[in-house]
Amino acid sequence: MAVATHFSFPVNYVLSEASRSRGRFDRKLVRAVASGDSIAPAISEETKVKLGGSDLKVTKLGIGVWSWGDNSYWNDFQWDDRKLKAAKGAFDVSLDSGIDFFDTAEVYGSKFSLGAISSETLLGRFIRERKERYPGTEVSVATKYAALPWRLGRESVISALKDSLARLELSSVDLYQLHWPGLWGNEGYLDGLGDAVEQGLVKAVGVSNYSEKRLRDAYERLKKRGIPLASNQVNYSLIYRAPEQTGVKAACDELGVTLIAYSPIAQGALTGKYTPENPPSGPRGRIYTREFLTKLQPLLNRIKQIGENYTKTPTQVALNWLVAQGNVIPIPGAKNAEQAKEFAGAIGWSLTDDEVAELRSLASEINPVVGFPVEYL
Pfam families annotated for this entry (predicted)? Predict the structure, then answer.
């Protein structure tokens, strides 16, 4: 599928398209086209939601960039220029398609994970190159602090954040998260998040892989400083619903904390790409085995049927199911432009309540598998 990574519109096209979609047109955009300036498609506010109780607004679906630069879990243990260009295509097409929320972490593709190049470094480079072409580009960036055993206290959070900002080539990020609970010192880590907000280094703060109790404790500690806990990022998909079973989803809804869903298509298992005869390669093949994929086929067949009714792919149906749960932002990982374009098509429409319930019922017959990353719930 060919996907354009940039656009050049004549003035009359901008006028007609804008008039049809919004009943008005962006005069600033038209002036830019008329003057011959390069422009990028604007991200509509209608596609955005508030992140928890913070003032930050992000698109209803984000893009995870764990695979960018990684050669320890993704990319068949190899990273090369072809994969680099594909990742850049994923970034550009995401923005062109109306998705501007990207989630990374200091350990993705870093020396800690034996990566080829830091995901933060690549994301920062892509943002800089995009802004050189389109100066008005806005990108929402989320990254994470690794609670490594030797890191202690609030100062370690600020120090790690500043290192992340240097790699990202940014003065601040939109969302900073604790990647997992530490073995000790969690109160200090939370204090560090609060310090980051007060120092203007971040717009919002969140946690990841936090249980209901840890989530509530974090919420209350930050609340005492007048800082909302914006999000909890956990493994959540149609075939992995632990956040519902452990009370995490209910607590997020009660407290007004957005649940950010990583592995929302089960690392590719829900796309229909893999079959018992064609399992995924690398470490994922040990998680999503031939036996598991055999049990998954009836659900995948129904997902495909429902998708055909909407002219949507199984991937888009699986992501839309998550959005239908409310207060959930999926962040599927995009390796290339085609995937990014497909992910963007998961929002802007809705499954019926009956379809949501039917898919949940079918998925409940499948015992979920737990793989990497290990959760700290």
Answer: Aldo_ket_red (PF00248)
